[in-house]
Amino acid sequence: MSLEPDGLVLVWNMHMNQRPEYTFSCQSAVLTAQFHPSNHKLIIGGTASGQVVIWDTREGKSSPINRTSLSHGHTYPLYALAAVPSVALHSIITVSTDGRMCIWNENDLVEPTSQQDLKPEKKEAKEGLKEVTTTCFDLPGRDTNSVILGSDEGYLYKAKLYDSDVGIFESIKAHDAPVTAVRFHPIHKNSPRDIADLFLTCSYDWTVKLWSNRTSTALYTFESARDYVYDVAWSPIHPAMFVAGDGTGSLDFWDLNKDTEVPVHKSDILAKHSGENKTIERAVSRLKWSDDGKKLAIGSSEGALLVCEAGPEIKANDDDATLFYEKMRKATSTV
User: Fold this and answer.
1) Is the dihedral of CA 72, 74, 80, 85 positive or negative?
2) Residue finishing a domain among 138, 173, 208
3) Residue 295: which domain range?
4) Are residues 68 and 143 in the same domain?
5) 4 and 78 inside one domain
6) From CA 38, how far away is CA 148, in angstroms rounded?
7) What is d(CA 150, CA 194) in angstroms, rounded to the nearest whole number?
8) Residue 273 has pLDDT above 50, yes or no
9) Same structural domain for residues 54 and 19?
10) Cβ within 8 Å of residue 195, ≥6 positions away
């Protein structure tokens, strides 16, 4: 344990980019972190030790105010978590490479309120798939009982979180390499219910794929990347647009209303030029839009954080939304 780096979470202020506003630490490397969805003073993190930790910006200290124990929950690195509403509080859902899915009460992290060891379906088990090693997942915006998990084997697993049929109920061989991200389409104010079923996946196989939760076949495959694709993010204001980042530091911006074969814009913003006019490639590790869709935060493999202003073409009107909804309905009906 002493050889592992300490975990670090930095909170930045856009008006002060020379140093972080808050610095939080942990005894184990932090692999994922997010603000609490209803109390932004709290930050929830997942660590390499498998623990869930919570920091509070009001406490005046860098150490966590609460954490799960090493003897309950996960025993392997925790790469993905989500906080979802449950009655008056939020439940924290975690999935680890140990093949276990846990649900925690945010006010009581002593033991998970529910835990499930995820097992491959009989068909996949017969084909030699012995375990489910999940590194990413996402939940449909209007359904808090369902989750789609991405795995190192390239599979997507559809699972239930609650009720008597908790666990995996469908497996899809989605990619030829590990799945790095699963992103459901954001819910807009007037968006049709079936649009919430759309989600994107990306992978080490250099591809991004668009799916509907109602089918088992990809609607579209996007192959513009030049390396591993590490993350993908829907625009929160333009329903037909998303951005993907790969291992060369390239960003591909797609507008599905205009083209599904070629991105509408490609940017090598993370390429760093040395003194000998050589280009050093820095991978795009994470992408995140601001809620108003005007800024895009880009995390790099070298630890750099860039925040970019979105261009005017990112904006959408009612015609763009209508065109996208009709196009997706047609694509889903033909699969």
Assistant:
1) negative
2) 173
3) 179-335
4) yes
5) yes
6) 23
7) 21
8) no
9) yes
10) 185, 188, 239, 325, 328
Q: Are residues 274 and 315 in the same domain?
A: yes
Whole-model pTM: value is 0.90
Could you give the CA distance from residue 311 to residue 335 in angstroms, rounded to a whole number? 34
Which position has the token pair 């389409």? Answer: 185
Res. 126: pLDDT tops 60: no
Alpha helices in 101-148 (DSSP H): 122-126
- Is residue 12 very low, low, confident or very high in pLDDT (cuts 50, 70, 90)? very high
| Domain final residue pick, 152, 173, 194 | 173
Q: What percentage of the chain has pLDDT greater than the value 90?
A: 56
Tokens representing 264 are 């509408």
Q: Is 50 exceeded by the pLDDT of residue 1?
A: no
CATH number of the CATH domain containing 260: 2.130.10.10
The pair of three-digit structure tokens given for residue 248, joined into one six-digit string: 């060369």
CB 190 within 8 A of CB 318: no
Give the mean pLDDT of the chain. 88
Task: Count the domains in the chain.
Answer: 2
- The mean per-residue pLDDT over the stretch 76-81 comes to 92
Of 85-89, 100-104, 150-154, the range with the lowest mean pLDDT is 85-89
Q: How far apart are CA 157 and CA 174, in angstroms?
A: 10
| Cβ pair 148, 182 in contact under 8 A | yes
- The residue-averaged pLDDT of 10-19 equals 90
Question: Radius of gyration over alpha carbons of the chain, in Å?
Answer: 20
In this structure, are 142 and 187 located in the same domain?
Answer: no
Alpha-carbon distance 173 to 153, whole Å?
8
